[in-house]
Amino acid sequence: MKSVNLRPVLVTLLGLALAGCASGPRLYANQNPQADFASYATYSYVAQLGTDEPGGPTTLLTQYLRSAVDREMQARGYRYVNVSGDLQVNFYVETQEKLRSRQTASPSVGVGYGYYGYRGGVYGTWGAYSETEVTQYTEGTLNIDLVDARRQELVWEGVAIGRVTEEARQNVQAAVDAVVPQVFEQYPHRAGS
Questions:
Q1: What is the pLDDT of residues 122-146, one digit of tens each?
Q2: Can you list the alpha helix ranges (DSSP code H) found in the chain?
Q3: Helix (H, G, I), strand (E, B), or coil: what is residue 88?
Q4: Do residues 182 and 31 touch, judged by C-beta distance below 8 A?
Q5: Gap between the Cα atoms of 150 and 141, Å rounded
Q6: 7-99+136-184 has which fold?
Q7: Reduced to 3 states, what is the DSSP secondary structure of residue 90?
Q8: Tell me: the pLDDT tens digits for 163-185?
């Protein structure tokens, strides 16, 4: 049996919940303007979800995502069917290591006396001294895609991008349960309307 490293996938989604971060994830949504959302009443999942390894077992992340998406879709009046739903759902997650640098001006060295000490209170030192702080962090992206099953066209995608937090790493399911409703806030449709 093939061993699957799920840590990068789990870390990605965990960061999206951004528990304890006031700003939360950045959310985006796109939809096909020609899609007839009133014609969709059922949904199912694509055969090979983007959060599972090809030919591998269903991951815990996939299970958490399916459960959260089921709640959101059913709250909007959609009915789950095992195969051949009007809409097919897929997920994709990705992480990237990022660097952030911030440069701040340092106070002048010996204001009034200068670096060499001969300025004697006449003027301060040159203000070109600065400090640079570099922070490394993990940024995660979650995509939730809804595909028109009959036409095999993407009709809506919701995206959440955020920083992975330690709190989210400690409780993956809570992170999923927090971020998926935020993504679906961008979905304005209800089944059959």
A1: 555 555 566 777 777 778 899 999 9
A2: 7-17, 60-75, 166-170, 172-184
A3: strand
A4: no
A5: 28
A6: Double Stranded RNA Binding Domain (3.30.160)
A7: strand
A8: 878 787 788 899 999 999 999 99
